[in-house]
Design a protein that fits this description.
By secondary structure, this protein is mainly alpha-helical. It contains two helices and no strands.
Length: 71
């Protein structure tokens, strides 16, 4: 029997956003969750649509550790 996946979005994805922005982000994530990992259209939500700038996100501890070790 397969486990049912939760549709809950982690709070770290919504941190620092207003209520309306949180709802928009949840909709974008839900819309793109079934797309393939190598599909570039699945990641369009990561940019600000107004000026095309990458959204600010929290760097993972793994990325931070990698940069400490190799840069």
């Amino acid at each position: 029997m397969a486990k049912k996946k939760s549709n809950k979005v982690p709070q770290k994805y919504l941190a620092g956003l207003s209520k309306s922005e949180k709802e928009k982000r949840k909709k974008e994530i839900a819309r793109n969750k079934n797309k393939a990992a190598d599909d570039p259209s699945a990641y369009k939500f990561a940019t600000n649509k107004k000026n095309g700038v990458q959204r600010k996100t929290v760097e993972s501890r793994y990325t931070r550790r990698y940069r400490e070790m190799y840069t």
